[in-house]
Amino acid sequence: MIALLLCGIIAGACAAPQFNDFQGVEGTEYKVTVPLYDFKPKDVVVKAREGLVKIQVTDKNQNTISTIKTLPDTVNLHGSNWIIEHGVLKITFPLKDGVKDDRGGSRHGTTA
């Protein structure tokens, strides 16, 4: 519902708005990807806290749009990062030690 609302709001702000996103475990990381065409890193703010990640974008008319995504308790907030690459916001979080990935493996070791 939020994604549909944001899509409608952003439609007036950018040429190819889409909030068709992905969330899930890939290897030893939890990844969130959100298409954000026509936005630059200076237009985006990403904030994470236990269980949540907030994505806020500001369009060329200074309108601010935000969405909040839930995160599983297996996500380690320390060591997270984000980048906009080819119009896609990519947020990565390391998994907590001992968490199994999609292929049945597990993450062990220390967190940076």
UniProtKB/TrEMBL annotation:
Signal is among the record's keywords: yes
InterPro entries the record matches: HSP20-like_chaperone (IPR008978)
Record's keyword annotation contains Signal: yes
Signal peptide segment: 1-15
Keywords of this entry: Signal
Protein name: Uncharacterized protein
Source organism (scientific name): Mythimna separata
